[in-house]
Amino acid sequence: MDTHRTIGVLGAGEVGQAVADQTIRYGHEVVIGNSRGPQTLEALVDRLGPKARAATAEEAAKPELVILSVPFFAVPELTDLTNWSGKIVVDTTNQFAAANPWRGRYDVGDLTGSEWVAQHLPGARVVKALNTLFAPFIAADPRHTEGRQVAFYAGDDADAKTAVAGLLDQFGFAAVDLGGLREGGRLMQLDGALSAKHLLLQDVG
Length: 205
Hints:
Blueprint: E1 6-10, H1 14-25, E2 29-34, H2 42-48, E3 52-56, H3 57-60, E4 65-68, E5 88-91, H4 113-120, E6 125-129, H5 135-139, E7 143-144, E8 147-155, H6 158-171, E9 174-177, H7 183-188, E10 200-201
Parallel strand pairs: 1-2, 1-4, 2-3, 4-5, 5-6, 8-9
Antiparallel strand pairs: 6-8, 7-8, 8-10
């Protein structure tokens, strides 16, 4: 993983902010955007420091690696935001039907949530990650005396998964590969067996 990579963050809620924090902590630059415009992000980028830049959603979607932290139901609005082809998109969303408070389940039929997300971002290499953890667990140092915080990930593109696993490892997480968006995504998504499970991995030796 390049030490000076520019990473886009779409969505400035708790998870988007937590990922931006970690990204900047390890030398990357962040372009963060939301649906309400960069003027609403000034206080946030002041807190994040000089490696963060507030931008439009279009600008935040330009980097080759984008963290997707918008509400699940807002994903269809992103289809024409940029040319998604070849981009690595880290899907941190959960399948809630409504926000503030988060409630209900958005119906995507037989698809997993990330398969549905991938359909709306044509050509993107989607990797599901960091959606099973509450934001404070993403923001905190994942290395503990008892072990490292586990961060599950799943995807259908091997190179994209390797890049995301490298980023998670750089943050200090124990990255655990769950396979593709179908099988792994089902375990990780809202109400899946691993949803909201906070686990530590003890390193041997």
